[in-house]
Please model this.
Amino acid sequence: MAIGIGLLGLGTVGAGVAAILASPEGRHPLVGQLALRRVAVRDPGRARAVSLDPTLLVTDPHLVVDDPAVDIVVEVMGGLEPARSLILQAIAAGKSVVTANKAVIARYGEEIAAAAAARGVYVLIEAAVGGGIPIIEPLKQSLGGNRILRVSGIVNGTTNYILSRMAAEGAAYADVLADAQRLGYAEADPAADVQGGDAADKIAILAGLAYGGSIERSAIPTEGIDRLEARDVTYANQLGYVVKLLAVAERFEASASPDAPPAPVPASNDVALDVRVHPTLLPRSHPLAGVDGVNNAILVEGEPVGQVMFFGPGAGAGPTASAVVADILNIAGISQLGAPAGALDPLLAASRWRQCALVDSARTRHRNYVRLLTRDEAGVIGKIGTAFGTAGVSIQSIVQYEASGSASSSGAGSGAEIVVITHEVEESRFRQALAAITALPEVQTVAACLRTL
Amino acid sequence: MAIGIGLLGLGTVGAGVAAILASPEGRHPLVGQLALRRVAVRDPGRARAVSLDPTLLVTDPHLVVDDPAVDIVVEVMGGLEPARSLILQAIAAGKSVVTANKAVIARYGEEIAAAAAARGVYVLIEAAVGGGIPIIEPLKQSLGGNRILRVSGIVNGTTNYILSRMAAEGAAYADVLADAQRLGYAEADPAADVQGGDAADKIAILAGLAYGGSIERSAIPTEGIDRLEARDVTYANQLGYVVKLLAVAERFEASASPDAPPAPVPASNDVALDVRVHPTLLPRSHPLAGVDGVNNAILVEGEPVGQVMFFGPGAGAGPTASAVVADILNIAGISQLGAPAGALDPLLAASRWRQCALVDSARTRHRNYVRLLTRDEAGVIGKIGTAFGTAGVSIQSIVQYEASGSASSSGAGSGAEIVVITHEVEESRFRQALAAITALPEVQTVAACLRTL
Model:
């Protein structure tokens, strides 16, 4: 019995999906049971990478959503509207939906999930995070026995490509970005990538699944790589670190202290989370440190599984189409069970089961990398060290770099550059210390401040 | 509605599973619906890591399998029998089975799968490969849209621990093995690990799922690390490689040639596979090269997904219990659909859908690392190079090492050691070349011969 597929969009990803459906040989036999019934495109006359029966093409997406021969609606048009409305309309028509649209899911995921649960259909989103990497379904279907402690990932290929080249070549951000745009690795308007918004969308989605509760997307502290200087990538490298744009969601333990043993997991189902996106110094031995170029990787830490990592191509027509088809197959597979209409598998449906609150970032604890521009005078390191110590901030290392002659873009002039890496400290205390240090007459400015694992 | 769980075995993994079931807070709410109903143990009086109601314990495993209150039977006793018979008995009783028993599945997987399909129940095996790493279900549920080109993995933690230490310390195999046994990373009888049998079990299982056909376990060419010499690990390192015990299953293309473009994927569903286990030189940039210690990783290459990798702890009570509980949750989740008895989701059931034939290894193509002990005479490298060339074997590098004074365990004496790395060549042609080279009067012996990626 064929399962009717309707496509909203026939861009890169849509054409990749159509190509898989058109060549089922050698793939799982269920692919052969998927029948492409209708495709909404903006311009039916446009030349396409995949050849389709032209009678399948329509310009009105409602004709796809409303077609009784379409069992599963695949939304790969992107953008917030009309994508959101069409997804809701498909759900209302009793159809399961597959979407690669992280922006819609990160913003309207609750509304969409509630509508799907009420109507008894699935909305699957494997392609929304990590391109072809199986990460959404493993989180839902393979790690449910765990208490998730942390999800951290390199989830934006554009910024990882830029950072990899900055590290390898010592190149400046703006130069690499321009080159990435020429090569098609970065959009003409790169804001969503380089300012961290895309990564924040994705960590909102991952955290929602990992912790079973809704994440307030707009409350996620987000810092991109657009103000990162080449010298900080270089200094980090000299100190044994690589700089990556990390998206992190970790369980917040109020009692955490560097010396105390890990706090026991609270029995209550509600959970406080520290969710954020920022450039991060990773020790070179960290599992995510070796993930270079446009690849993505997501590290999941749980009790009792320990650390598991998922690695692969974070974007591209083929990988993303692979993830979209995986979702279609999951819905098609379960549809063969002949279960009563509206009955849902709770793992695949991924309904929310607790409250997730984002903690005030002032209360979170992190290690920090700070680069200070100072006067080139004897005793400066001592004064900075003392100021951190007085504020109760423990320091791992202080290193002075020769800044004279190598005018930094921050205008170091002929002063000194001092790089401090702290031990773990509460953010509020660190900020207090930084204010005290900025007030020292020898300190000209805080040129960079990055989180460190 | 509670779902009754019966455990066969309460060793490390069984106790880990019981511990998760006994503390559902903070895990997926479906865990709270699992009720441990009966546990078969050898000695009910033994002290255990997990405290259980003693009335749950029985010594006769048939009481678990036959208990009408048990819906899902979890086999974590290990060994071939009575594990195989109990799994079949549970299936006959209409119960789904979760097992971590790679030896049983690699040998009797077809018999068990046929029985499960006939009875309309699931046999899930996530814990059988890769410990806590989600790999079995992603292969079944997330990559079905792909044509799988290659599955390669580090799937045995014991040998990877030994190889990691040999590489880091330049230590001899026997010394590291003895140390690993003291530390509990290797069994008193390490044969199944160090001779590659465990890895062969696992690649048989992975290949069966990736390619959708049964793999003849006993036909897999298997070479362990038990004859690997420290100097080959060292030389490999100097040449830019690391040595790993790889388990590989790749689609065999008869027309493959190093110069020809990749052959098109045949339209027929049947597939010829090159499946093998052997110590392998990996370029340091290979995604699997950085996987050290007792970790496991599996790299899946498919069209159109490209390369995706799954990394994590390959063994241990917690990780393995995480995988077992994942399987239980998948069965429990689908059971909530109220589908007619006997109906199966084809993805979760993973029924076979084509024939897989293992190709004659003489026809397979690989790169090779060869270490030759030779007389220390001028012109030897030239003669060896010429002999390879005459046989049509293209060479990437020939390096002569100083063997005099550093008597190798192969009895190099005061001769020379010559290490050759070939380009890709058909195995039969390579063996012919090696025979011709061994016949050279200057060549004393082939001291080592390893595959190279």
